[in-house]
Amino acid sequence: ANASVQGNPDRGGFATNFGFIMAAVGSAVGLGNIWKFPYITGEYGGGAFVLVYLICIALVGLPLMYAELIIGRRGGSDILGAMRNLAAEGSVLGRILAYLTGGMAVASGFLILSFYSVVAGWALHFLAVSLGAMPDAQLGAEGTFAEVAGSANLSSLWHTIFMALTITVVVGGIHGGIEKLCKILMPILFLMLVALLFYVGYTGGLEQSLTFLFKPDFHKLSAAAVLEALGHAFFTLSLGMGAIVTYGSYLKSERHVIRDGMAIAFLDTLIALMAGAVIFAVVFHAGLEAEGGPGLLFKTLPALFIKMPYGAALSSFFFLLVVFAAWSSAVSLLEVVVAYFVDEWKMKRSIATCLFGGLVWGLGIASACDGNVLDFLDNLTTRYMLPLGGLAIAIFAGWFVSYEDRNSGFAPFGELGKKLQAVWLFTIRFVSPVLIVIVILSKTGALDS
Ligand code: PFF
Ligand code: NA
Fold first, then answer.
1. What ipTM is given for this predicted complex?
2. Closest approach atom of ligand 1 to CA 325
3. Domain 3-443 falls in which CATH fold?
């Protein structure tokens, strides 16, 4: 293969394909699955929304996942460098697209991590409260959430601890930090969810919960639900900001992407559904409605946990799971930023990580002190930057990368081959961009009138 495309051998990489898949799954599985998916599913009425969400994963999520894997694995560098390496020779437009998309992706990682860490910090607070480690804090009391979210000091404290955890892992590098963490956390997280499913199978509400999730009632489906589902497909799969490109760039071989992409999307979806099944079982068993809104995880659940058998232990177990999920996602957000400064600006990994981790921490303090800042950054990134980044990456992969590599005979889909590649190329050229444009326009309100 072309040496310039292979990149710098000193940048490290994943030791095994299993390690890579666990890291990518670790990036995907996060607050999006355990906090956001259940509450939006509750708000939009269950089964029909889940079905639309699954269709969005298949039509936009999976094709874009392949686009990012291919760009990363083939470009062999950070998001900006990978795209620049692949921009067809002499294509000024391709290079411009690489710089704009790369720049926005790095900014997205920086901004998302700043508030993601604050929310993860709240989960740390609930973990500490459940373990009885917080004086005066009472689990399940009405005020517990307001106590942490409403306190600039407490929120900042937990945010600081969570950022320190994140920085520590990223300093360790791809193999020594991220791969090691995710190889351990992801299987544990999965087993914990299985255990929770058994627990609610025993305490009750599981049947009702599964019916709610899987029996579609199309009367409840609205245009807003469809748009929410599509937007969430990006966020939950870590797409549109180069996280998957960056991880893909650390793979040594030019393995075919077909199985990896499928595994990452499947596991992320499975874990969202399992988390939803557990959470709604608890909610329904208590005789409550599913429309708890964003407070479902931090207000409704803790109050219910404490009334259940082994309530404090259950709550500790659950919030530990949330912290694990958020931690393995946070490292991927920071890695996008760090990889950019290491690859493009030749900074040392440890320096780039501490410097930019520190800056993210500083910005996060604003979200910890003011919920409006948190909401603003959440909306800015999830509604606009990720879909825009996804659109740019889809257009780049569809129109600016040459798939007839004479040197390496590169075949992203392997022997399964040409037909599948043609289907993917058609989707990424036409179907995905059109759907993404519809989401962006509707979210900006352009389609309202
Ligand atoms: N996929 C993560 C979640 O579902 O919580 C969030 C996320 C992580 C988004 C990393 C983007 C990203 F690059
Ligand atoms: Na996710």
1. 0.99
2. 5
3. Hydantoin permease (1.10.4160)
